Amino acid sequence: MKRFLILLLLLSCGKGINRAKDFPFNKGYVLVDHNGNKRSLWELQGSVLVVGYIYTHCPDICPLITDNMRKIYHLAAKEGILNKGVLFLSITFDPKRDKPEVLRDYMKIYGIDTASAWLFLTGEEKTIDSLMKDLDIVVDFGPMQISESGDTTYFITHTDRIHVVGRDGKIKAYFKGSEVKAEEVLEIIKREI
Amino acid sequence: MMLLMGFIDIADIWARPGVKRGNSAVYMVIRNNDTLPDTLYNAESDIAKKVEIHMTMKHKGGRMGMHKVDYIVIPPKGEFKLEPGGYHIMLINLNKPLRGGNRINLTLYFKRAGKIEITAEVK
Lengths: 193, 123
Fold this sequence. Notes:
Radius of gyration of chain B: 14 Å
CATH class of chain B: Mainly Beta
Largest sheet of chain B: 11 strands, mixed
Order of helices and strands of chain B: EEEEEEEEEEE
Largest sheet of chain A: 7 strands, mixed
CATH superfamily of chain A: Glutaredoxin
Number of helices of chain A: 6
Order of helices and strands of chain A: HEEHEHEHEHEEEEEEH
Distance between the termini of chain B: 14 Å
CATH class of chain A: Alpha Beta
Number of domains of chain A: 1
Largest interface: A-B, 34 and 31 residues
Oligomer: heterodimer
Structural class of chain B: mainly beta
Number of strands of chain B: 11
Number of strands of chain A: 11
Distance between the termini of chain A: 19 Å
Radius of gyration of chain A: 16 Å
Helix content of chain A: 25-40%
Structural class of chain A: alpha+beta
CATH superfamily of chain B: PCu(A)C copper chaperone
CATH topology of chain A: Glutaredoxin
CATH architecture of chain A: 3-Layer(aba) Sandwich
């Protein structure tokens, strides 16, 4: 009954539970974490993952996603379930700019411990592009803007998403990352640990 | 804190953290106490190479994006909220990282109220 009510709540809020789709652990993806270490997605399978998709130059939506993940993280820590095989991932879809040192700076300014159970991941452009397609994260790069001083920048229109992945490697639920309530995600995490 | 600038009040001013050469956003509530509308049409700050007024909007398929807007109209005896997920002052290409507790200065330009200096705390 409780599970049915959670499902009903999620669907009524435009979120969902997805039992069919596999997280692409077995496709050979190798990413790079914020410390510059290579991380195979395959080696991360078996943990319950909370995964958000961001780019560090995003001023409005991605900070909301990161802030919501931080709330979920702190709530999970408070309830003592972080050490039960729960791992947080923030994967950038802008690897051209988001090098490991930039991810580290981003973590620091958002008060995220770089040695915590939260990895920020980047990678080669073609790897990230393929991974985002596998995860149905749509990423549209806007036009390059050039300022009077010659500096360039661009913005990205993107899917606003947080996934929860179970120990079996399947995506268990997805949420609108900028609006999700930490308690909703925690319920799913608790069910999966 | 609320800034009283003639008939324009500006409250709840804050900015997002941001990495050096990255971007940030500034939010606030602008209240117009006059009986005529006023228009915010420009913003400047030394903290970034470029400052623009932006709006975050939802696209097809739940994608989120932003676009520049030329101005914001604050209705008479009304207010306009610049808030996360909506309108914001966009700081593009930051000259230095913005960390929690930092304070940054901005200048806002209104058609009727003129130039208004504000300070935003990074949160």
